[in-house]
Amino acid sequence: MTDALDRLDLLDLDDDLADEDRMLRDTVRKFADDRLRPHIRQWFEDGTLPARELAQEFGALGVLGMHLHGYGCQGAKPSQYGLVSAEIEAVDSGLRSLVSVQGSLAMYAIYAYGSDEQKQRWLPEMAKGNAIGCFGLTEADSGSDPGSMRTRARRDGSDWILNGSKMWITNGSISDVAVVWARTEEGVRGFLVEQGTPGFTTQDVHHKISLRASITSELIMNDVRLPASAELPGAQGLKGPLGCLTEARFGIVCGVVGSARDALASTLDYAGSRTQFGKPIAGFQLTQRKFAEMAVSLQQMQLTARRLGELKDAGRIKPHQVSFGKFANVHAALAICRESRSILGGSGITTEYPVLRHAVNLETVYTYEGTHEVHTLVLGQELTGLDAFR
């Protein structure tokens, strides 16, 4: 696999990594190869994940909320978090989702919009993986249009009463704290709902075909009473949750580079050893054309991720640029996985090879945190100055 990875770096992008970045990348890659890769096939087939155990291991590795500053977080550059996302998603998108939801949605929401008391209470333990968070925005009937959410919070004296439900929530049932967004008379607000609060229940989504090595849940709030201190004071309106999504999408842009790279590298190895008509199938012209097109596409994905990392490191990244990355990279990653499967033939439909597992996971990534269509319209609005959402 190492030889295949080297051959796929046609533009020598790896040579431009700083020593610190390469050391970080290699450390996470070794952890992924030693701890995660040997088990991912079974986790996927069983539809399970030892998420709490892994969260503590990710915490010990220092990758949970690694791009945040203070409160036990590493204060790493966003581009370094991008490298980490790629290495984790090279094993499985579900594992990257565990890290991403923890650090870039739940922790980031508290970091960006929480009170100092909320930050001090939750962020150090979440950075260690001792506490797990989830992010409750999507509902069964409001995905791409979060402004139509039905979850409501009303005041009752100094308390809040929360009612509603959230759907497709990663880490939901194992979370110690849920960041839940609700409509109020003053607009959308965010609340921290602790596990065990009366009226707050969860139930897992089963029979998934995609992201099987990930915990997906429904959050149910039935007259949940919260103190005023549970509200995120810095979040006003939809800008709060949308800001969190922009933060998390950067991890997706970088992460899917890993899944596409892993699929292509494993297929390149296979094609070099699979013999038909007296020679390896890698020696046939049609197969080489597929490899050439996929390798170029992969390097374009890497260049997009690297450029967005530079912009984010400089504090200059804009939401439409993140949409550009998700629009381009997830689409390209899916295409690489599908074409790689065609080279694998019948072997490609089993979990012996990671290619189709990556592909079905990417079908979910294609949809969550902004569908491909939504990012199309974000780019269209930036180009034309006209809003086509409504």
Q: Could you explain the architecture of this structure?
A:
This protein has three domains: 122 residues, Butyryl-Coa Dehydrogenase, subunit A, domain 1; 98 residues, Butyryl-CoA Dehydrogenase, subunit A, domain 2, CATH 2.40.110.10; 146 residues, Butyryl-CoA Dehydrogenase, subunit A, domain 3. The strands form four sheets. Strands 4-5-9-8 form a four-stranded antiparallel sheet, covered by helices on one side. A three-stranded mixed sheet has the order 3-6-7, with helices on one face. It has a two-stranded antiparallel ribbon with strand order 1-2. α7 runs antiparallel to α8 and α7 runs antiparallel to α10. By secondary structure, it is an alpha+beta fold. It has eleven helices and eleven strands.
Task: Could you tell me the CATH topology label of the largest domain.
Answer: Butyryl-CoA Dehydrogenase, subunit A, domain 3
Q: What is the percentage of strand-forming residues? A: 15-25%
How would you describe the shape? globular
The helix/strand class is alpha+beta
Question: Number of helical segments?
Answer: 11
What is the H level of CATH, i.e. the homologous superfamily of the largest domain? Butyryl-CoA Dehydrogenase, subunit A, domain 3
CATH architecture term of the largest domain: Up-down Bundle
Q: Kindly report the average pLDDT value.
A: 95
Number of domains: 3
Please give a handful of descriptors for the protein shown.
4-stranded antiparallel β-sheet; Butyryl-CoA Dehydrogenase, subunit A, domain 3; Butyryl-Coa Dehydrogenase, subunit A, domain 1; 53% helix; 390 residues; Butyryl-CoA Dehydrogenase, subunit A, domain 2; alpha+beta
